[in-house]
Amino acid sequence: MSRFFSARHNKLVPYTPGEQPRQMKSYIKLNTNESPFPPSAKAQAYAAEAAKNMQLYCDPTAKKLTQAVADRLGVDFDEVLLTNGSDEILNFAFLAFCDETHPAVFANITYGFYPVFAALNSIPYEEIPLKSDFTIDVNDYIGIGKTIVIANPNAPTGIALPKAEIEKIIESNPDNVVIVDEAYVDFGGESCVDLIHKYDNLLVTQTFSKSRSMAGARLGFGVGCKALIADLNTIKYSTNPYNVNAMTQAAGLGCIEDDEYNMQNCKTIIENRDYTTKALRELGFTVLGSKTNFVLAKHPGIDGKTLYLKLKDAGILVRHFDKKEISDFNRITIGTKAQMESLISETKRILEGN
């Protein structure tokens, strides 16, 4: 780092994204939870049309898309805020609802950006350990009196809490915001969106990256009561009012209009997830029960990093984490049936030769 870097930030440990290989070697890419399917036809066509007017600023309110998302979710226009990926709405929420008197709390094994957002914004935070089976103990969050962030389903475990359990947490912390990160909810989780009209302390975040094949477009959103969304708009208009570009807004609108296509893709991914889970377990893997588009798996005969490296050498990328509690595991994104068959075949070959 340079000698000019602020002392406020020079101890930051930034988030590490999954590998995005650019070399010539062709990989089966199962490491960053992207969809194996292309964006919908309307999403592509609408984005191409919007590209003709890139000399103009985009609509800062994203009016058409915001209304379409609101209609899709059964909420009002001013109960939705679109952002540059769900990472942005999460960062806005840390800025808006956390400070020295409202510290953040989240699981010790969860989305790796939460501690980064807290550190970046000088927010005190606490990490609560998961139980030995990698589930969240709801009792750890009851009446805790802090700003709570829960990924549901959780990542990288893939495990989901029932909505009724999440509601207990929300109800018991009426004076603190509860942020429920539903990035993977379309793969079998229960959404809490309908609870925003019951609880004014609930913010739900979602993304178009996973279930709607738009990871490269960067589109996410938050849903909450009108007052919470107004708070978040204050943060948005104080940082980047044109945060969702015109092509992404257009693609998102086409995506919503083609949502039957997206939901069918989710069903296919769930089927492929079930196939992969069964096949890995037959090879001796422990595979956590997943409600996402990935599985977390480990094998007693080979450590996680070794398997990750051997698969990479064979042209298959999965995600390995060095964190002690999950270092024996690898997170495997669910792709097409052919991709998962290749993964199983190569994994079997590695195990037999190990």
Give a verbal description of the structure.
This protein has helices at 41-50, 63-73, 85-97, 113-120, 163-172, 226-237, 246-257, 259-282, 304-313, 337-353, and strands spanning 28-29, 80-83, 104-107, 125-128, 147-151, 178-181, 202-207, 220-224, 286-287, 294-298, 316-317, 319-320, 330-333. The chain is α/β, with parallel strands linked by helices and 354 residues long. The protein folds into two domains: 28-38 and 260-353, Alpha-Beta Complex (Aspartate Aminotransferase, domain 1); 41-257, Aspartate Aminotransferase, domain 2 (3-Layer(aba) Sandwich), CATH 3.40.640. A seven-stranded mixed sheet has the order 2-8-7-6-5-3-4, sandwiched between helices. The longest helix has 24 residues, at 259-282. It is globular. The mean pLDDT is 96.
